[in-house]
Amino acid sequence: MPVSLDWYLIVAAALFCIGLYGVLSRRNAIGILMGIELMLNAVNINLVAFWRYLSPSTSTGQVFAIFAFTVAAAEAAVGLALIIAIYRSRDTVIIEDIDLLKE
Amino acid sequence: MQEFFFNLTWLIPLFPLLAFVIIILFTTQNRKLSHSISIAAISLSWLIGWGVVFSAFATPHLGEHPIQMTVPWFPTASTTFDIGIWIDPLMAVTLFMVPFVCLMIFIYSVGYMGYGTEEVDPHYSRFFAYIALFACGMLGLVVSENLLTLFISWEIMGLCSYLLIGFWFEKNYPDPNKITPREAGLKAFLVTKVGDLFLLLGILYLYSQAGSLSYADTFFNPELLHRLATTPALPIFGGWSAASVIAMLMFGGAVGKSAQFPLHVWLPDAMEGPTPVSALIHAATMVSAGVFLVARIFPLLNVVVELEHHNPTMGVIAFIGAFTALFSSIIAVAQNDIKGVLAFSTISQLGYMIAALGIGAYVAGTFHLVTHAFFKALLFMGSGSVIIGCHHEQDMMELGGLKKKMPRTFWTFVAGGFALSGFPIITAGFWSKDEILAHAWHEFLHQGVISWPFFVWLLLTIAAFLTAFYTARQISLTFLGKPRSHHAEHAHETPNTMTIPLILLAFFALTLGFAGIPEEIIGHGNNFFHHFVGHEYAATPLSVPVMLLSAALAVGGLGLGWLVYGRNPLAHGEMDPLERGMQKIKLGWFYEAMRNKFYFDELYQATFIQGSLKLADIFYKIDNRWIIDPIINLVGRAGVALAKFSSFLDSRFVDGAVNWTGKVVTVLSRLYRLFDIRVVNAIVDLVGHLTQRAGGKLRSIQTGRVQNYLMLVLITVLMMLGLYLVYLS
Known about the structure:
- The structure holds two protein chains of two kinds.
- By secondary structure, chain A is an all-alpha fold.
- Chain A contains three helices and no strands.
- The termini of chain A are far apart.
- In chain B, about 70% of the residues lie in helices and about 0% in strands.
- Classes of the chains: A mainly alpha, B mainly alpha.
- At the A-B interface, α1 of A face α29 of B.
């Protein structure tokens, strides 16, 4: 049975939801960052799947995906740096204790 | 039968990968199961690996017709990347060495990490997962069919190196200047990354020229090689051919991975990892990957030499190799850490191989790669056995007298040490090292005194003598004489899981050289190694003076080392006789420099590390002091000035009019007041009251936690999406 585009989209959607759930429910900031990575990767799966099934003769989709994970890498680096900075100043990475926006 | 094994080759790197996944996901709680899975996986890889190797030995003309099996991996718009295996003589001889040494080290690790004792490592299972992943990387590199999968395996090993050097990441030392495992792992990762960047650039450049990364289309494609060697590269490379630029860039990767000067600084500090890791990664296998890569790109180097006679590529490679070999063997003489000596010895021996490839001695370089892996793994594991036997005492000045207490370790260590120093006839190191020296000598007779081969020969010969000397020093200080500390006094032989691998490796360290005895001695066509690996290259003619000289140097170095350190064993706290001697002839400063590794760490600290920090500081200042903040301040001040001006206008002109109006309004407002109080106020109060109550309710939403806000966003988006869908249909 050939794998149709739908399957890839379903996997990507599932991955996106898992990532979103992680972002909303994890207490640990690093867990949240991992959730964001999952969401970005779900987007990448979509990009590559659409490219493969709709316009395989150009490499736009692949290039887009490469851009997305370059950005994801930069985001992870900045995110981790922020987490380290927060840890140093507040001695915690538990997101519930970081509520500076309230003030 | 041969077909059968060749068809299974792709499984070799997969078994350890599978072991890694299983251990890390499921069995970290069960130590016994974890190490069993790991060892079983590498055993399977080893069995299939040796099946492939011996099938390859039995295949005629494998050199001219390598076996290639691929499946398409991922297509891009114009090309498709394949994943697959490539079987040729170089792959076969490396595959002879890698899985066997890995297996020995895996078994040894069971003892070293303290299985079944109360000192068992808290992350025991994780260790076996990591070394399995490492084995996957190395085996993948050896069997891979193109440079893309080679690079991926290369980076897997880089990652494992980082994880395993920093395996004891909790460890801190009281001395703040001593490098911790954590920092050592980071250092290794960052320094090798410098080399990796060059390798990646080389691969990209090759891809842009060749449009493919498979070996068959690149290094084994004479047409392309010829084209590369005749196309000039970009103008910034000063008229070099594309071939030489690609070769130099890829060599940069090898310099990082194989710890050649000037990127050698990470390897000595990598000794902070557990000793099986040092043996596995930083002696036998991973550091060989760099040499393997240079051997892989050898056709490219060859074509550069043939078509461009004055191209410095090979000269640079030969120089870096030979210089590293001598330079690090000088440092090794003054090291007191038992693993430190071996670390520098490894760098030095890798220098031998690189230098050999740099003067065109392809066969000799590969031969040394294989033999060295066996005896260096043996030496490292021997030193690990000493470390365990002496309760983690690593300073050779505190050891001594272990010969009686640890006989198996002693005798296998002597076998490894003699192989390292090239003791004549009965050790593997003698035959492989001699072939490199003979080749350099032969080329030097060809090209005259002012040539790379002469330089290489001279440096390597001096290094050979020093190698024998520091080996004798190490053996004498560690095993001979009387124990110099409490730990050495109470040493005990290590368990069988550690000593049996030592014995097996010692067997190969002594006998493997017989595979490559020059044809002049054993008759034409009997030099198996040369016949198999490099029959397209001319055999190195036997040179009796060189052989006698290297034999004499090995024996002389060992003898001198024994005279200095072994005959009159040191007492506790006594100064190193070499240091005393050098101080006498006013060379104490040089000994100090040797002990401090010629201050390269300090140099890099002062230039690169401090430089980066300075640069970061400059950027900080640009942001905070010089440019961005001043601009913002300027805008702020302009705003304040404008506001003051407006207030001035206000008080002069507007105020009068306002006052007059005010009086009229006052009168009117009195009338309104009544209405206000009775009607409007009541309504406003009601609104205010309602708002306050609503606010009180809504306040609970503003928690200051981003997650809650995001949840609100999500709910809103879902609601809008729902509405959209409802109205759309």
